Amino acid sequence: MRSASAAMRRVGLPLVALLSIAGADGLAQPAPPNPLGQPLLDASGVIRDDAFIRVSLRPDDERYAGIDGDRIKEWLLEVDAISLADRDAGNLFWGRNVGTAGHVVTQDWVEGYFRRYGLHDVSRQSFELNPVWHPTAWDLTFAVGGETFTLESARPPQGAVSTPDEGVEFDLVWLGGGSAADYLGRDVEGKAVLIQDIPRPGTLRHSIRDEDAVARAIERGAAAVGIMYGISDNFAVWQRTGDRPGFNVGYEDGMRLRDLLGQGERVTVRYTMESEMRAGLTAASVWGTLPGASDEEVLIIAHMDGYFQAALDNGSGLAVMVGLLEHFAGIPQAERPRTLRFLGSVGHHGGPGTSWLHDNRDTALASTVLAINLEHVAAVRTKYWGPRLRMMNAVSPMRWWVNGSPALLDVVLDAFGRFNVGITADMENGASGEMGRMARDVPSIQVITSPEIKHTEQDTPKWIPAVGLEQITRAYARIIDQLGPLSRDELQPATLPATGGGE
User: Any idea what the CATH number is for the domain that residue 234 is in?
Assistant: First the structure.
C-alpha cells in the first residue's frame, strides 16, 4: 500500500477513490490521457466507469456475479439509440414519447428481448390515447440593434398551440425568478417575460412551480413566457408556459439574453409555432411471463416512454429489466420460487401508465405477491456547484418505497446494503412515477432518483454509470430470491401506510 499512499498524497485524492481505480495488486493504474489531467476522468471529461466506488461480492452472493453492469449499459445504449433515431428522423418532440414512432420501436425492442429469453405468453396490451400534442414546425429568433440571432438551446413549450402563419413578435423583459417582488415597477403587459427557473436538487419542483411564476406572468398581462433553466451546460428542456406562446432556453443562452437586457438593449422575440392534437392514436404495453415453481407472481415493471434520449428516465429501468430477465432465464424453473411476470409499461408521460392495473387490481393482480418498479434506477452522484453540476465517483442515493411486512423490509434493506445501493434515511410517504396508483394494491418496492437532468436534453448515458446499473440489478435479484421462502401472507403489511406520493 506504500505506492497507493504516495500517489494519494501526490494528487490529493481520498484513499477510497484511489483504491477504486487500483489493480488487483493494490497499485494505482495509470489513467488514460485526458485534456485536464484528471485521474478519474476519461478523455471527454466524464467519470470513468472503473473510477466508481465499488464493493466486492460476498461469498454467498457469488450467484449474482454474472449480472454485469457493462452488459446492462449496452442495453441502455440500445434504448438510447431509439431516441436518437427518432431525433434524426426530424421529429421536433423527439424521444420515445407515447404516440410516436420512437415509442413503437421501443415496444418492438422490449418484445424482442422477451422472446429472445424465452418468455411465455408474450403479448401487447393496446390502449387508446387521449389526443396527443405534436409540433410540426417551430421557429424562434431574437433581434438586437437590427441583428437577428437564434439560440442553440431554445425549445418550444410543451403543449404550445399554433401561432398565426406570420408568427408573433414581442419585446423581452427580464424578471429574475418571477416572484411578486420582481414585478415592482415593471410593466409586462403585451410583452414576453424571461424567468429563471432555479432547480431544486432531486425533484422537478423547481422555483417556477414553487413561485407560481408562469401563472403570475399571465395574470400581469404577459403575452409570452420564456423560461431559463438555471443550470449550466445549456440544458434544453420541455416545460409548459400555460396558454401563452413561449419558449425554453438553457442557462448560458438565458444569461446572454439577461446581459443584453441589463445593458439597456431592446431585445425582441419573434415566434412561430405549428402544432396539432392527434386523435385516434394507440400505444401498447408489452407483457411476458417466466414460469417458476409457483403460480404466484412477482411483477417487474419498467415504463417505456421518455423525453429526449431519456437514458435515466427510463432507459435505465428498461436495461435493468432485461438484466433481471437474463439472470433468471438462466436458472432452472424449479429453482425460481415464483413466476416472474415482466411488464414494459406503456408509460405515464401522456399515457395511462399502470392505472389499468390499479383499476383492475382484483383480477390483474390476483396472483401478484410483489411488484417491483424499475424507474430512474442509477445516476451518477452530482454536486450542484452553482450553476455547474459536478460529477462524483459515486452512484447517487435514491428515494425509496417499501409497502409490505417487516420481513419484506428486512430483506430489501439487507440487499441494498450488500450491493451498495444508497438510499435516503427516511422512506417516502408514497411511491411516485409508474408505481404511484398501484403502490398499495400489493406489496411493492421502488427506488427512484430525479436529478436535475431529468426531462432535459442532458438525460444522456454519460450520467448513468455501469456500476449503478449492476448494483441495483443484483440487489433486486437477491430480493426476489430471498423472498422465496416467505408466504404471501408474510409479505403483506400489517397495517396500511398513510396515503401520499407524487412525481
Answer: 3.50.30.30
According to DSSP, the residues that pair with 282 across neighbouring strands are 128
Chosen domain end from 244, 278, 312: 278
**What phi-psi label fits residue 120: left (phi over 0), alpha (psi between -120 and 50 degrees) or beta?**
beta
How far, CA to CA in Å, does 478 sit from each of 73, 79, 128, 157? Answer: 20, 25, 37, 43
Is there a single domain that holds both residue 44 and residue 113? no
Residue 440 gets which letter from DSSP?
T
Strands of the sheet containing 147-149, edge to edge, are: 147-149, 132-144, 267-278, 168-174, 192-197, 224-229, 246-249
- The answer to whether residue 502 is domain-embedded is no
CB 483 within 8 A of CB 491: yes
Residues 174, 217: Cα–Cα separation, whole Å = 12
- The candidate with the shortest Cα–Cα distance to 380, out of 471, 468, 311, is 468
| Structural domains in the chain (count) | 3
What pLDDT, in 10s, does the model give residues 325-351?
999 999 999 999 999 999 999 998 888
Q: What pLDDT shows up at residue 206?
A: 67
Tell whether 369 and 293 lie within a shared domain: yes
User: Amino acid letter at 343?
Assistant: L
Q: pLDDT tens digit string along 189-223?
A: 999 999 998 776 555 456 777 678 888 999 999 99
Under-50 pLDDT residues of the chain: 1-29, 31, 204, 497, 499-503
Bridge partner residues of 135 (DSSP):
275
Distance CA 68, CA 467 (A): 8
| Backbone φ and ψ of 412, nearest 5° | -65, -50
Based on the fold, state whether residues 472 and 336 are members of the same structural domain: yes
Question: Of the residues 278, 308, 339, which one is the last residue of a structural domain?
Answer: 278
**CA gap 439, 449 in Å, rounded:** 17
Query: Are residues 118 and 154 located together in one domain of the fold?
Result: no
Query: Which residues in 73-97 are b (16+ Cβ under 10 Å) and which e?
Result: bebbebbbebbbebbeeebebbbbb
Q: Which residue has the cell 450542484?
A: 384
Are 88 and 210 in the same domain?
no
**pTM (2 decimals)?**
0.88
Q: Is residue 148 part of a domain?
A: yes
Please report whether residue 498 resides in a domain.
no
The domain containing residue 179 runs over which residues?
A: 132-278
